Amino acid sequence: MANSTTPASNLPIGEQAVRLKQMANEIRFSAMTMTNHAGLGHTGGDLSSSDILATLYFGGILQIDPAEPTRPERDRFIMSKGHCSGAFYSTLSFKGFFPRTQLSTYMDPLSLLNGHPDRNKLPGVEANTGPLGHGLPIAVGCALAARMRGQGWRTFVLTGDGELNEGSNWEAAMTAQQYALDNLVVIVDRNRLQQGDFTEKIIRMDPMASKWIAFGFAVEEVDGHDHAALLEVFSRLPLKSGKPTCIVANTIKGKGVSFAENKPAWHHGVPTREQLALAAAELGVEISQ
């Protein structure tokens, strides 16, 4: 396992990117192991979001301290696509919010690691999410609270693209621009797949960036698997003073695992032990005995 305590932000960006890729692949494999254990989960979305999570938590972006998870001045991160809890829990655990041994209890009876994150059970979870369309409205409230209190912490929220079918997101977006919340950063995991099929076959999302621009956001598109590109755009926040930010992170559902990439069935797919071994080889990680 990569050393999650090494601050990547003190390294040259190229070396940071190499370390972040390793961490992201560790997160991917951990999430797949958890899904295999539980017999259910959301493998495809776990894999598409891992590079974003690794960059935020291990690239020196989020100002957080696992030793003080409720420190008032911390940045807030809300995992709106809370069904992808395997990747999120793995990230929090590797960062030091709770012991890694707890990951092996994923979705067990009475486990603290529910299928959907619960802020009352785990440090580092800012909001209960999973039912879609809730995370962005909560994030807007957090950003507005910081503004009203005259405090400088930021709020980041990761949404799925299928999740944007929910109208509550667009009500929240209008509110964010109304209050000029440039301390709010929306990241869209644009993997173009949702439960059942490709997003463009269910409700067309394109042109994604234009939609957010029309709602008053400063917008940038980026390769959501390119750690150097992610670090660069995160280093320029806010993208425009007086405007909330939206980063459209173009990703591949199932990224990094050949049998899962861009396949609708892997929204809910559960890997077998044999598939875990193949995934470990492709991701370049070791299977713990």
The low-confidence runs, each spanning 5 or more residues with pLDDT under 50, are 1-7
Overall average pLDDT: 94
N/C terminus separation: 13 Å
Shape: globular
Q: List SSEs in N-to-C order.
A: HHEHHEHEEEHHEHEH
What does this structure look like?
By secondary structure, the protein is α/β, with parallel strands linked by helices. It has a single domain, classed as Rossmann fold (3-Layer(aba) Sandwich). The protein is 38% helix and 11% strand. The chain contains nine helices and seven strands, in the order H-H-E-H-H-E-H-E-E-E-H-H-E-H-E-H. The chain has helices at 13-38, 43-58, 85-95, 135-149, 167-178, 199-202, 208-214, 227-234, 273-283; strands spanning 76-79, 155-160, 184-190, 193-194, 197-198, 218-223, 245-250. The strands form two sheets. A five-stranded parallel β-sheet has the order 1-2-3-7-6, with helices on both faces. Strands 4-5 form a two-stranded antiparallel ribbon. A hairpin with a 2-residue loop joins strand 4 (193-194) and strand 5. The radius of gyration is 18 Å and the shape is globular. Residues 1-7 have low confidence and may be disordered.
